[in-house]
């Protein structure tokens, strides 16, 4: 999952030797009191992760008990509405991967030993998305507020990108897909653009069926996306050092943010960016506008999932507990 990839990247950056902290003078630019609210957990669960957020009220992730080593186990898909549990699936499947503002949940289940892309109702019932009989397996990864769904399918031993368009129910579109070492769909914007991570580093933005590799800033670097909004791709670059980055819908590098910045994880409705940067010697969630830090809203380590559309709520997990910070 994306959160696992993000944790690996964060750990790698923390081992770096040339870390630069965010300028503290910029951090006080936004006057706001951010207050934490821990989310509800289902009975028997002690920990959780948030993997998908609609930018307003709904979120999906996993919850489960805490092992003697402090880790999450017996992971079960969970749906929240403003921090309140709506659904926790009873078994290991279906997997809940994303949710939109209408509460439409997408993911996958297993039928006859193969993955099948599904939508998941708030009662846990699944509905299979239409498929090509030639596919040996398929999965839904992202859904936008328009109801477009995007995912992967396996066909002739190749992985292909698939779109289920909201304006043509019961249909799907196979997108010609290059061959990659590995790939993860990380986001889908309202105009249908898709961003994909590839291999240990790197990524593409898919616009109107065309794959545009993200520029890295140097021949030996890589650009890795984490989100897209209205064609604005955000993430991080790694060449001589790590930096947060922005690209356009054709993959051209628009801006890099240094001064301790690591990556951008989310874009708010008014263009504010949320991501990670070093504050002193520790990594924290920060907010940027125009490439400048405007807030350091969370004093503790926080696994960031998303910034709300109104830019007043930050969703994720703190100490493996799903939570949000809200501006008041």
TrEMBL record:
Record's signal peptide: 1-29
Keywords of this entry: Signal
Name of protein: HAF family extracellular repeat protein
The species this protein was found in: Umezawaea endophytica
């Amino acid at each position: 999952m994306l959160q696992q990839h993000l944790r690996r990247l964060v750990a790698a950056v923390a081992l770096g030797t040339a870390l630069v902290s965010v300028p503290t003078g910029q951090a006080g630019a936004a006057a706001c009191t951010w207050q934490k609210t821990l989310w509800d957990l289902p009975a028997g669960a002690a920990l959780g992760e948030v993997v998908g957020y609609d930018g307003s009220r709904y979120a999906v992730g996993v919850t489960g008990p805490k092992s003697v080593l402090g880790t999450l186990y017996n992971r079960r898909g969970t749906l929240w509405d403003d921090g309140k549990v709506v659904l926790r699936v009873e078994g290991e499947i279906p997997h809940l991967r994303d949710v939109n503002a209408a509460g439409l949940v997408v993911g996958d289940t297993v039928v006859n030993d193969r993955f099948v892309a599904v939508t998941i109702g708030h009662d846990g019932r699944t509905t299979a998305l239409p498929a090509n009989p030639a596919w040996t397996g398929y999965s839904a990864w992202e859904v936008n507020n328009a109801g477009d769904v995007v995912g992967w399918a396996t066909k002739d031993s190749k992985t292909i990108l698939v779109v289920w368009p909201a304006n043509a129910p019961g249909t799907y579109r196979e997108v010609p897909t290059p061959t990659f070492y590995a790939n993860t769909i990380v986001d889908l914007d309202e105009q249908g653009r898709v961003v994909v991570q590839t291999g240990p580093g790197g990524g593409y933005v898919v616009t109107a069926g065309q794959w545009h590799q993200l520029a890295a800033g140097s021949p030996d670097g890589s650009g890795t996306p984490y989100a897209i909004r209205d064609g604005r791709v955000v993430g991080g670059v790694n060449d001589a050092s790590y930096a947060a980055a922005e690209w356009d819908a054709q993959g051209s590098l628009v801006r890099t943010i240094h001064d301790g910045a690591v990556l951008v994880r989310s874009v708010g409705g008014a263009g504010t960016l949320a991501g990670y940067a070093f504050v002193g010697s520790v990594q924290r969630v920060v907010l940027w506008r125009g490439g400048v830090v405007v807030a350091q809203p969370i004093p503790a380590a926080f696994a960031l999932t998303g910034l709300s559309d109104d830019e007043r709520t930050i969703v994720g997990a703190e100490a493996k507990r799903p939570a949000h910070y809200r501006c008041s």
